[in-house]
Amino acid sequence: MESLYLLIPLSIVLVFLIGVIFWWSVRSGQFDDLEGPGYRVVSDDDDPPASTPDKGGPKAGD
């Protein structure tokens, strides 16, 4: 019975802490776009990467 005096306040504090963390995540925009990152992973980029200009350094055959 004495353990309930410890467990009930701890469970109330834990529920309050979980609620605060959930409220913070909703307010900071963590759940705004759930499908966008998945689509970006599989999007097809047909454009070749931009080539960098030659810096004038030593070449492999020199």
TrEMBL record:
Pfam families: FixS. It comes from the Bacteria. Keywords: Membrane, Transmembrane, Transmembrane helix. InterPro entries: Cyt_oxidase_maturation_cbb3 (IPR004714). Residues 38-62 are annotated as: Disordered. The chain crosses the membrane at residues 6-26. PANTHER family: FIXS PROTEIN (PTHR41532). NCBIfam families: ccoS. This is Cbb3-type cytochrome oxidase assembly protein CcoS. It comes from Zoogloea oryzae.
